Amino acid sequence: MSFNELLVRIDDFVWGIPLIVLILAAGLLLTIRTGFIQVKHLPRALKYLFKKEDVTDEHGEVSGFASLCTALSATIGTGNIVGVATAVGILAGGPGALFWMWIAAFFGMATKYAEGFLAVKYRTIDEEGHVLGGPFYYIENGMGKKWKWLAKLFAFFGACVGLLGIGTFSQVNGISSAITGFFDPNGTNTVSLFGNEYSIVTVISAFIIAILAGLVIIGGIQRISSVSQIVVPFMAILYIAAVVILILTNLNKIPSAIAVIFRSAFGLDAVAGGGLASMFISMKSGIARGIFSNESGLGSAPIAAAAAKTKEPVRQGLISMTGTFIDTIVICTMTGLSIIMMGSWQNPELEGVLVTTDAFRKGLHFMPSQGAAFILMICLVFFAFTTILGWNYYGERCLEYLSGKNKTAVMIYRILYIAAVFIGPYMTVSAVWTIADIFNGLMALPNLVALFALNGVVAADTKDYFKRLKNGEITE
Hints:
single chain; mainly alpha; 4 strands
C-alpha cells in the first residue's frame, strides 16, 4: 500500500458518515436553540462589523473587526480557490458539492456563532493582561476541570492542523502552484531537489514566502491582525469584483450551471456513477471542503474571537458568524459558480488551482489570458499568505495551552512552522489536501463535544442578550 493510499483510507475513516452527521447535527441543534440566529440577526451581525463597541482595553487585545479579520485571514485562503476546485471536479464530488457547501455553511453559521460566543464567555486573562481563549478554555471552564483531557486533545490536534494541515502545506502549495503556473508553466527552468525536478520559480517563491511569514509571525497577534485588516478586505474586494465581472459577462450560462449543481447534489447526474453513491460522494466532498474553507465546527476561529475587545459574548458571536457567510456563502459560491459555468470542472487533466485559472481565462475572455491568470494568482497568493499567518497564531495558542505557555516550545513551533511553509510545494496536491482533511476532522471532534454540552448556555445567554437589548438595558 502506497503512502497516498494509506492517507486516503485514514481520511475516509475520519470523514465518514458519523462525523458528517455530527457536524450537521451540531449546526442544526444550535440553529434551533438560537432561534435561527443566522436568518434573524445576520443584518445586525453585519452592522456590528463596522460599529465600534464602547469598551475599555481591559476587555481584550484587538477590536471585534480585527479579530474577525484575523479569523478570516485564516479561513479565506486556498480553500476558497483551490479547495472549491478540488471539491467540484469531475473526479471528486462534481458540481453538487457546491450545494452541500451551502448546507454546511448555513448551519455552520449557527455553529460559528456559538464558538465565538463561548470563546468570549469563558476566556481568561493572565497576570500580564494576555487574553487566553478558545475551545480548550470553554471545554475546561465551561464543562469542568474533569474534561481538561479533552481540551488538551483539541489543543494537540489544533497545533497539528496548523503545522501539517491548513496552515502550511496546503497554503504554500497553492501559492507556489499559482506563481509557477503563471511565470513558468512549462517548467523550462528547473533544479533538482529531494530526488525530483522542480521549477526554480517554485523554489524561489517558497523561500520568499517563508521569509515574509517569519517576519510577520514574530510580531504576534497585533502584527498579524494589522496585516490582515489591510490585506483581507482589499483582496476579498478584488477577487469578488473579478468574479462578478466574469458572471455578468456570461449570464446566459447561469441557468444551466444552477441546474447541474442541484442534479449533481442529489445523484441525478452520473458524475460518480449516479444514484445514492454519487450523492454521498458529492455530500462528503462538499461538506469536508466547506468545513476546510470556513472552519465552522473546527474550533479555530474562537481562538481569535477570544482576543476581541468586547464585554458582550453574543455580540462577538454575531461578528464571528459573518465569517462563515463571507467565506462560503459569498466567496466559495462565486468560485464554484465560475468553474461550473465555464465547464472547467469537467476536465480531468486539470488539478487544483489550474481548474480555477482555466475558468477565469474562459470567463474573462475579453482580457488577455495572462491578465486573468495574473488576477487569480495575486488573490490566491495574498489569501493563502494571510492564512499562513492566522494559523500560526492558532497553532501557537494551542501549544501555549499544551505546554503551560512554555516560550521555548513556542519558539520551536515557530521554527518548524516556517520550515513546513518552505517544504510545502514539494508535496503532491492530493497528499496535501488529504492530510489537511484528516487533521480537520480530528480537531473538530473535541470541539463538537463541547458545543453539544454547552448548547444550553448559548441558548439562555442569547435569549437574555436580545431581551436586554429590547428593553433598552444595553445599547448596540
